[in-house]
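Sample pair:
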Amino acid sequence: MNISADRILLITLAAIAAVSLCYVLYRVVCSLLFRLNRFFRVQIIENPRFQLFGKYYSRLPITENLVALTFDDGPYEPYTTKLLGVLDDHQVKATFFFAGLRIEQYSEAAKEVCRRGHQIGNHSYSHHRLVGRSLKFIRSEIEATDRLIRALGVTDEIPFRAPYTAKFLTLPYFLTRTKRLHILFDTAPMPRDTWGAPVEAVAASIAQQARPGSIIALHDGNLKAGLWIANYTDAVIRDLKKKGFRFCTVSELINANRN
């Protein structure tokens, strides 16, 4: 059957229009969900304990008093180096979710985190929300940061955490297709460390929430949190040790669940 050139052009234009319409509708839905979260506290996109599909961890179902300390948005000097000193003092290993842009800005700090035996994860390149974005943009953000992490000497699997834990459809699809672990969390301070909250309040909030298998989220790459991150971490470790908790990296926590 012969199809005229005009008909082929018409079909092509219709297909492009349909794809464009779907993308616009997707952006509209994402915008509405963000508004629900902002005004009605209905967390779907930025829920740190939930994802529509794909493999993710916010807590591991273990009975052992083991938790994972994680730090987002770094490296950021001089705060990351001060934080490393506290972790060394307590002989605690943690997981750092680095933004690629920050690795480029503070490469020596990033290398030092690696040298001291902490786990390094991917927190995207630019720290933009990866919701309502194209698959191409998401791929470039994650793969660019993977390359920077590999350049630090990391050979193990690189876990991923979405900026603001924001995810909907495209990001989980990409993570599933590329077999990446998405690490969320079940424990974060309220009042938030990113608000520059008092040390005692941050530590007490985490101590109240933490359970066996918890993944704890703090920030060394945020200015307000960074100013106090060494103090926050010192207080959190002391309080949780008093309650009988031990600390490990995210990968170690996952392995503890497998065993």
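The chain has two domains: 1-42, 56-258.
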